[in-house]
Structure formats: structure tokens, C-alpha cells
Design a protein that fits this description.
Layout: H1 2-18, H2 35-88, E1 100-101, E2 107-111, E3 117-123, E4 128-134, E5 145-148, E6 151-152, E7 161-164, E8 178-187, E9 190-198
Antiparallel strand pairs: 1-2, 2-3, 3-4, 4-5, 6-8, 7-8, 8-9
């Protein structure tokens, strides 16, 4: 009588532990995940990994774009410094030679302090700012060299080179007051605006 009562109590506690209608498990065995639960967990993990990959790719592209613009900005500022230095020391006397800018604002011609003919031009087809030099030694003009890539106008119809007349009315006609150079660098979906102005120091020789 006592033995039967003990077995009944053990079965009741086992049903209470594992739940009604569920098969009894061996001692020390714990139920795991079902196939549906595993598939759901894998789907959630895949979504998280995909979101992380997308965020990482966007961050990498942003870093690359900023790096490219930084490099382009440094090289462009160096080129602008060279152009402005040449303009400042250029002949600006109508009796000798003057700084000339084309009507479309794409080209600037001058004679520098060494007596060399220098031409800067914007090439809209290749989106480049180029330079060539004639040292007047009988060899003629050099080839066009690329100074800056990925150059664009500030806006449609805006000139790259702009001539400003001198403020002093006593300067001879044809004398240049200053030259403004302005353009944008467009690269990797980002852009940077660069503007510089150069005043010829030697107005009259």
C-alpha cells in the first residue's frame, strides 16, 4: 500500500514538472530548441548581420569620400598657390605685356617674372585645370600639364578666371587690378569650393 502511494506521488510530480500531455524525459535530460525556434533565431541573426554590414559599408564609403576630398583639397590649394604667385609677379604694363583672360573665362595668359609665357586654362571636356609654358628659348610651347582634376564651375555660366579692374583711375588702360580664380572640386559624390584672388604687385614698370 505504501509503495503504490509513493509511485503515484512521483508520477504526479513528474507531470507537474514537464507539463500535462508531454512525454516524460529521462533523468538529467533538458529539452532543447525546436526546429522552428532555430530557424527564427537564424533569421534574426541574419537580419542583424545584414544591418551591421550595411552600416559598416556606409561608414567605409564616407571615410573614403572624405579622404579623397582631403587629398584633392590639399593638391588644389597647392595649385592655386602656384597660380596666384605667378600672377602676382606677372608683367602688368600695357606698354610691355599684360595679363589676358579669355572672354569665356576659361583661360588666363601672362608673362611671368622670368619672361616666360604662361597659360592656364580650364578644359570643360576633361574637367581639368591645365598649364603650359613657353620659355622663349626657341623650343616653343610645352605640352599641357594637368594641375587639378575633377574641376567644375561654381554654377552654369560662371567664369573660372575673372578680371577685376584696378580701383585707381590713374592706372593705364588695360592694367589688371586683380584676378579671381574660383571653381569646385567634385569627387566621390562630395564637393569642395575653392576661391583665390591675386593682385599683380608690379603695376607699372
Amino acid at each position: 500500500m505504501k509503495k503504490h502511494k509513493r509511485e503515484t506521488t512521483k508520477r504526479s510530480s513528474r507531470k507537474f514538472r514537464y507539463g500535462a500531455g508531454r512525454a516524460a524525459l529521462p533523468p538529467g535530460f533538458r529539452p532543447g530548441l525546436s526546429m522552428v525556434e532555430i530557424l527564427i533565431a537564424l533569421a534574426i541573426a541574419a537580419l542583424l548581420l545584414t544591418a551591421t554590414a550595411v552600416a559598416f559599408d556606409a561608414a567605409f564609403k564616407s571615410y573614403r569620400s572624405n579622404y579623397e576630398m582631403s587629398i584633392a583639397g590639399v593638391s588644389s590649394r597647392n595649385a592655386l598657390y602656384q597660380i596666384c604667385s605667378t600672377i602676382r609677379s606677372a608683367w602688368n604694363d600695357p606698354a610691355v605685356d599684360i595679363i589676358d583672360v579669355s572672354s569665356d573665362g576659361n583661360q588666363c595668359s601672362l608673362v611671368d617674372a622670368n619672361g616666360w609665357d604662361v597659360e592656364y586654362r580650364y578644359e570643360p571636356t576633361s574637367l581639368q585645370l591645365q598649364v603650359r609654358v613657353d620659355r622663349n628659348d626657341g623650343h616653343g610651347w610645352s605640352d599641357w600639364f594637368v594641375m587639378i582634376d575633377d574641376v567644375a564651375r561654381l554654377a552654369v555660366g560662371e567664369d573660372i578666371f575673372v578680371v577685376i579692374d584696378p580701383e585707381d583711375p590713374t592706372f593705364p588702360s588695360g592694367t589688371v587690378g586683380k584676378i579671381i580664380i574660383r571653381f569646385r572640386i567634385v569627387r566621390e559624390g562630395a564637393q569642395q569650393t575653392l576661391t583665390a584672388a591675386a593682385v599683380p604687385r608690379n603695376i607699372i614698370y
